[in-house]
């Protein structure tokens, strides 16, 4: 948002005229730092506008910091120009080692000229913006509390009702007492880690896994161990061996569509995995954030287990909006209670009420299922198309996923992914090199591509340049 | 939100007719659990509506969990009724010790029949809802990214620009690199504690202090020490003695209007306090959340210190909206960098972009200053009125604050605040007993009242009943 657009929206043309007149006096130094502005009455008379118009103009200039109000004595030109806001570009392009934060920060702070085939979300144009706009406008007409109040400690009852129905569709029967809304999917995992982990505790992840799991676990000072991923879930023999040898307290995974590999957990692996977890009393966080992208639901650990030692988490950031945000936790009711306390202590609540109610409205509207179907079709076309393009430059998908937007790929012989990512950044292309996903640092020749962000020809050109 | 209001808004009357027809068949058992619903084509023909109308009706019923879609084979009645959502009342009225969470949970989960003189926020009707509605509608018209994307790692540039101007008005010059938006004010403190504290570290608070500081510090396993509060800030001689004896790593306080006492830090105390902090290399978090309620700005530690060892945090939840939420941190630029990483690791970003841009729009609009003036006037009238009423039942304010909505009060001789809070809850009145604010448990005869929530005659009646 720019201040100009705010002005032009909420102020009339007369307010804008007064603001322009003051700006002109400032620019020409007719009014200098520290000087008093004309009184509201005098300026209103001089410009032939109402005093209210001048008040509005002064308030806006004060909100920008150009002038300042002194109680009882009028408005003054600010003593000094404000320190300038640095440009987004210069904020985001600090030299820095290629670690999980490198990918997050380069992707999140990318400007419009930067291409982000390494990012973990869909382009804004793929999201259901009309449905979101309708829901927002509808909410804005509602009574005050939804706009102003904190909301209950478990979060929107409407959104929890939607979640109950969605989970039931996956074979997971969760009572209301088993659901808690959180500010985001990541925050859901963070709260659970705060409840379960002490510094030095061992946590198991897949190799490779979503890179932010590693960043989060390092923030908790956990000891991280990993098991190689196969196309049907973690290598189950090795999984059993690691549980026996390392006794991890917790395992974090995506079951449906695994990030970054796109693998799908098989029912047999799920069954053995849960038995091993039971034998060694290990808790599991199942991150279902990509679940809606599946062509048909695959087994959920939470469904087999009945939400006993498995905690299911998710959010709507990948399919609906990452700007109007909420995550959620489905878990044993006796775990939800301390999680509510932790969320109060560390955030005084979860998602904003307005965001949660907006999401509920979109999800209960009739258009969401159609949107998801369209996304699936669009991605099903994009995956083989992008895979073919990558193969033409010698980059090979590790497997062809059943759904979603990630392709986990092997680079040509002799290519180091971090060098290529570093070189591509000079061409304004943000890549996701394999080892940021790998606790064991076993993925130096791998890279994750987001097929929804791979259409621009400059990407393949930058890749070829970087690989030679 | 109810599903009914969502239906009536976004669907046409034909969709509602189809939904009603299906509900009737379910209620009369013409369609039982597990049975297949009529095909879309057949029902559309039978009811004289378009197939799209039936699809929309089925999608809504599926979103509610009443029916389920099976890919390729149509829609079926859900196998079993969903587990019912428990009523908000039964969720919130668990027996529980009176601790900081007791006040938070009872206040946040209060239903419409419950009175909350112990809560820490204003009634929804006191908030600038029209300005918020205008800003939301304006944002809903904007281009897609603001509705869908994560946004940059530091948060909305527009909101940070507003913050720069506000801080400059308090004598705090913060560069863009010194500002970070967070999901809430509490989360701002939490991130800073994650950066600075290790389990067992000593942290200093005021006695009394905002009760959630204590909950947060316990979540960090900090060792809490406290210094008695006076009407001009912490007892400075004791403050210096505690710093020398206990070597706290961190001090957390509100400077402008202190919570719960309403005290104002004097310039002299601020100066000595900062010198003591420098002598013992202690960091300070200054929570400015009540700053806008001051009739005129009092000294800010961050202004004296120049944001070197003082970190200023705040939010807009008390004056603008706790539903459309954002907090912020102003700190040394070399501290902002690790805080950005921590916020990515633990939440994948701060406030939703939509919320932050909405707040920026309200704050740059001309009406915010007027809103704040009106709040100040309204509260300046309410404070003595409520104080007089409390005094009539023997409850005496500890001091009469310059601004804000809290009155920190002493109960009549022999009254225990926790017993009174427990008894008042039976009359649907949520109070804030003194010891939840006191690390030293020195406030057993004190209670905090929110003057904006004290107009209902039932409150004084419940207090009198509970005190006898």
- CATH fold-type name of the largest domain in chain A: Aspartate Aminotransferase, domain 2
Which architecture of the largest domain in chain A does the CATH hierarchy give at level 2?
3-Layer(aba) Sandwich
What is the structural class of chain A? alpha/beta
In round numbers, the mean pLDDT of chain A is: 90
- What is the oligomer described by this structure? homodimer
The share of residues in extended strands of chain A comes to 5-15%
Shape of chain A: globular
Q: Helical stretch count of chain A?
A: 19
Strand runs of chain A, count:
14
Helix content of chain A: 40-55%
Largest beta sheet: strand ordering of chain A = 3-10-9-8-7-4-5-6
Low-confidence regions of chain A: 1-10, 81-94
Indicate the CATH class of the largest domain in chain A: Alpha Beta
Our Rg estimate of chain A from Cα atoms comes to 26 Å
Query: Strand count, sense and closure of the main sheet of chain A?
Result: 8 strands, mixed
| Major protein interface | A-B, 125 and 126 residues
What is the H level of CATH, i.e. the homologous superfamily of the largest domain in chain A? Type I PLP-dependent aspartate aminotransferase-like (Major domain)
Number of domains of chain A: 3
Give the distance, in angstroms, between the N- and C-terminal Cα atoms of chain A. 41 Å
Pfam families (chains A, B): Aminotran_1_2, GntR
Keywords (chains A, B): Aminotransferase, DNA-binding, Pyridoxal phosphate, Transcription, Transcription regulation, Transferase
GO molecular function (chains A, B): transaminase activity
Organism (chains A, B): Bradyrhizobium aeschynomenes
